[in-house]
Fold this sequence. Notes:
By secondary structure, the protein is mostly helical.
Amino acid sequence: xxxxxxxxxxxxxxxxxxxxxxxxxxxxxxxxxxxxxxxxxxxxxxxxxxxxxxxxxxxxxxxxxxxxxxxxxxxxxxxxxxxxxxxxxxxxxxxxxxxxxxxxxxxxxxxxxxxxxxxxxxxxxxxx
Length: 128
């Protein structure tokens, strides 16, 4: 996944409705405009860490979402369980404003990856 971190910082600042002064404080730009930071494709780790803390957002998770790193043995064990054990299904409802649809797709990607890592199959409900 190729993320332009400056644009992501700008998106989060807008989403959180931060004032210009709050953004400047978080970015450590003093009285300068945050535009320079918004144009940066990448930032040093210490800078991004500070911004993450000030904006109360984990930009590192945006850069490296949860991934599945299972071994073949783990996958075989999981498939064995799915063949041998009774399975339960759960349908959930998720409500969110339309403006957060991009964030929701990221949420689903993370939920699916984490679910797979823990042995859950996450997907669409079967058609009735």
